[in-house]
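B., you asked whether I could sanity-check this one before it goes into the benchmark set. Here's the sequence:
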Amino acid sequence: MNGVTLVLRALHQGERDLFDGLVALAERHRAEHEVHHVATDVATWSREHVRRLADTAAHYGLDLDGPDSEGSDSEGPDADGPDLRGTGLDGPPGGSSPDLFAAPRKKAPEPAGGPSDPGLLLLRDLREAHLAAAHNSLHWEMLAQAAQALRDHRLLALASFCHPRTLRQMRWTNTMIKNLSPQLLTSL
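And here's what the prediction gave me:
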């Protein structure tokens, strides 16, 4: 297995996790209409990225359509794939679980306003979505650079299509955090 297939696997898992997280964020914050609708919309981009990654990976003999390709039932590495733990491609540092958006979070510090303060929970969820998108963005950049070095037009087209959407997901979460933080954090 070469480095490109490692990045394809990491991106496939990362985009699945981001999709699941954005859908959960939209559902948890349904009362915040802008958050609900935009999170739902940008989640569909990650769903599309998962499909495109699986299609592209098949061209390289890599099967990314496993039993958990359509959901978040994954409990570990793909049975037919390598264990990515320790490669640096397995997830964000710090040993966080694959489900970045699990609610309630295990042993997370309680928000200052209380464990159920909806504003602080929204900020937390937006932060987690932003970090997951940033994680994917770095992998898209690595894939694009490898594609250029290999002169692989298929991989470059994939990264060129998907990476700008991931950057938009990051800009949206960042904008929401900038807009919500002043009022929510100063009113505690």
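One thing to flag: Confidence is low (pLDDT under 50) at residues 67-85, 92-108. Otherwise nothing jumped out at me.
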